[in-house]
Amino acid sequence: MEKIIKCSDAAANAIIDPYLSWARSMWWYGENCGRVLYEKLRLRDATGYNNRHKLIDEILLPEQDFHCCYCMRSIVDHTDDASIEHIIPQHTSTQDQMDIYFSHGGLNNNNVCLTPNYVRRNSVGAPYPHHVAYHNFAVACQKCNSSRGHNEIEPIFLYDKIENEVIYNQKTGEVEWLFDPAYVSVTPTLPTLEKLDLNRPILKAIRAVWFYAKSQGLDPYVANREDLIYGAIGESLTVQPTMSDDEFNAFLSLNVEEMWKILLKYQYFG
Fold first, then answer.
1. Dist CA 178 CA 70 (whole Å)
2. Environment class of 25 (CB within 10 Å of its CB; exposed 0-12, middle 13-18, buried 19+)
């Protein structure tokens, strides 16, 4: 996992600002204003351009090096199974719920505020309403976004040195915390890795195959598929002598052409 550096405020806010003037005039929408505001961002503007697509393609994906913010799957553009992830969920409605995200780092109230508060105060500029705040946006693949759902999680991809705190077992493909009390305290109420289902069997198998290929100096784009799959199974069994049926079947499923194409989107692990 990699840290996402949010440094495109000017370009992102140039897209978002026109929608905010509309939101301030629609104060009577009340609690529903945020959802309506985000839905307007999903539609074409007066020039016929879809600004949600522009945010994804020109701002969010480049700063994520064209990877899903969670599983590191390659995402080329908005057509490639991409979705905007609200770090603070859209349904957040109280300051206490919002403060959870501020207390763990990565986000702060200088950049993001509750959408109803923004509208009621007739605010201009930062902090931006959380439904459309650039700092509250990332791009996730559809599967990770749906796995997260409305769960509260830590915005770990905004943490400094997160690439050294979330590590991957080179044999089994399992992702886990390298616990360092001086840096990240994994909050029991926000078990991010579990809520995102980042250790589902197919992801572990994909990572294990990439790690095995790398250790053998092989290229998954041209190497024999079965050799890589069974080699990765063997490596996994050296440190985990038992394997569940779901885990074994996940490895075997990669021998299907469509599944292998999905595996190739995880070249981050190669």
1. 17
2. exposed
Cα separation, 115 vs 90, in Å, equals: 9
Nearest 5°: the CA angle 246, 157, 97 is 95
Q: Can you give 175-195 as a three-state secondary structure string?
A: EEECCECCCECCCCCCCHHHH
CA–CA dist 67, 268 (Å, integer): 8
- pTM score, whole prediction: 0.90
> Could you list the pLDDT tens digit for every one of the 270 residues in the chain?
999 999 999 999 999 988 887 777 765 555 567 877 888 887 776 666 788 999 999 999 999 999 999 999 999 999 999 999 999 999 888 888 888 888 766 788 899 999 888 877 777 778 999 999 999 999 999 999 999 888 888 888 998 888 888 899 999 999 988 864 444 454 444 568 888 999 999 999 999 999 999 999 999 999 999 999 999 999 999 998 999 999 999 999 999 999 999 999 999 999
Q: Where are the alpha helices (DSSP H) in the chain?
A: 9-25, 33-41, 51-54, 61-63, 95-103, 115-120, 142-148, 192-195, 201-215, 225-239, 245-253, 257-263
DSSP 53-98: HHIIIIIIHHHTTTB-TTT--B--STTTTEEEEESS-TT--SHHHH
Phi, psi of 112 (to 5 degrees): -135, 140
Torsion of CA 143, 146, 152, 158, to 10 degrees: 40
Asked if 129 and 37 touch (Cβ cutoff 8 Å), the reply is yes
